[in-house]
Amino acid sequence: MFRRLMKDTKGAVMAEFVIAIVPVLTTFFSFVQLSRVATARLVVKHSAIAGARAAAVMSNANDNLPDQPGGGQQGEITKAVKASMGPWFARSGGITSVNVAVKDSSSRARPNGQYEWVEVKVTALYACKVPMGFIACGGNTKKIEETFKMPHQGALYKM
């Protein structure tokens, strides 16, 4: 019986296929996951730029804009950041959590200080959802941080 079993080659191709397809699929899904992470990084970078543009116009943390409401307008800037992410920040999107930090260094006290930098730092968590993609992601989530700054667009009003 053992000799007959040694001569039987039925299923050998199937076994070889299973052995060969696992590394091929793992490599393929890892590349798909890496491309999605790279795209998510671009989306977060774009949202940091949009947030910096919003902060340059709306941030009034140092009372540079007398005709605007006081405060840093953190909520409005965060809304601009999330809106610029589009479908990536949705129930089915890959970005699950967003934290926005605004640093407004403009000041009415210094000459031309109203045009100092406004910096926005966006920290996002990307959910790695591709099968076997957690290998390329280094876990189930990937933290992405991007920072962008623009000059404050406040005007110097004489009162």
Relative helix content: 40-55%
Number of strands: 3
Quickly count the helices: 4
- Distance from first to last alpha carbon: 104 Å
**Strand coverage percent:** 15-25%
What topology, given as strand order, has the largest sheet? 1-2-3
- The chain-level structural class is alpha+beta
Low-confidence sequence ranges: none
Using the CA coordinates, give the radius of gyration.
26 Å
The largest sheet is: 3 strands, antiparallel
The overall average pLDDT, rounded, is: 83
Query: What count of domains describes the coordinates?
Result: 1
Order of H and E elements: HHHEEHE
Shape: rod-shaped
Topology:
Blueprint: H1 2-7, H2 12-58, H3 74-85, E1 95-104, E2 117-127, H4 134-137, E3 141-151
Antiparallel strand pairs: 1-2, 2-3
